[in-house]
Amino acid sequence: MKLNKKIIAVVLVVAVIIAVVLAVTQLPGDNPSSDYVVGIWNNAEFSKPAEEWSDAAISLGGEDGVIDLVVAQAHSNGLVNLPFPFQNTGFLYSTTTTDLVEMYLSEFETAGLGVILSVQPLEADIKQLVGIILSRYGNHDNILGINVDIEWKESGTPNHVSNEERNTWLSEIKKYDANYKLFITYFGDYTYFSDDHPDLVILYDGEEDTQTTLLRQYGDLAKHYSSVGIYTGYSSSIPPVASVEQIINAAPNTEYIIHTYDVFSDRKVVMFQMDDVQVDWLEYLSINLTNLHIEKQMPVLCDVIPNNLDNPDVGGGYLPIYLQNVSGNYSDLVEIGLHGYTHNASEMLQGMSYDEQKDIVEKGLQIFSSMGITPSTFIPPFGSADNTTVEVAEDLGFQAFSSIYGGLSSSEMLILDNYLSLTTGEGGNVTIKTPEQLMSEIDQNESPEPVMVLYQFFDFQGDTENKLLEFADVLDVLKDSGKYVFMTPRQYRAIVDEQAAGM
Question: Which range (76-80, 310-314, 435-439) has the least confidence?
Fold first, then answer.
């Protein structure tokens, strides 16, 4: 039975295939601090059962889980919508005759979950808005405070908070409970926020970048405040989540880790895979293509043939150093997979004995090891593999196995075999599929497994410049569509593992 099919099918049933949120639950030894709490963000989504949200918060944060609940949402009409009956006035309005919030708060209180009440104020008076919210819901013992999302603040200086504003909001909050905190959310640096305060929590809400960059920005912001937290789980980030260990390392004073609405995302997972990268042939092409993925922030699995990477007399000498740099500095975007050893005809692994296959794979691993690279995905040469190959890869510690030929199974590794080609045609007539063609094929692919978009780097020979431009357009269009989540097998495997553990 294939690990991926078993797990992914269950994941889809609960609508959390990209539930990267669970990728940051605690791993063994992944608890550098006991002072943080973990929870989930609900962006005014009152159509899903309250139990579904509380279950998600508990699965992430246990008995101390929290829910960040949006109870005043910015609307495209420039007004703030309140999900409870309210006489429309100024910038505040309501369209409901029933209180949509109360049943959720009651469920969360029964479950013992803390609740942060979030507001997106636009031009509304924030002090007034805080009073309206807390006078209605301050009776619940599980309220932790009010969160002002200043991305949506247009009163005063847009997207900035002064010390005077902070004090005004805190004064209003404290009228209802002296223990309430003021949370302020944004994705900018510390200059957008007020100065620190004992009752202030700063929440960082960055996305659409690599986790390395996002965590660096978060860490810089956190240096200016005693209490901080971070939102994570956006499908637009690469990978979508950071681990608890990464977050705490970036900001040891982290008190809140909050997962976004993408916990309920149903986007397809797409993985790009560049095949046959090698030291002694067209190095410039594989490097240019990898650079394109980095530039476009589109993850890629590079199937690297290790033969001669440790031989300075072969090839241009650029690829080994380049791969080491990529492995060390761009691991969010580039995964280096082991593609056999020499990738010659003698490496048709299917049918070989266990020892023969292991000898070949170990030789490749030794070269990678000498370069300081530890691959987690194995790609058999020519796709030639059998279940003995799978056993060898398992025993050598690989976490994922990618082969264009199906029928393999593993109880330990993620098996990836759901392939589409980036190109069409053969020989000298190879062309890059248009974004529309590729998206159509991806959308028609009904498999619950990630879609692997495979291409050979050498197909970019001949009219290279135009082909690179066409491929750049493909990457841009797919990314801008918002329909997919892009990651590498290593990143996806981490998500699958944590999803399975959470069940």
Answer: 310-314
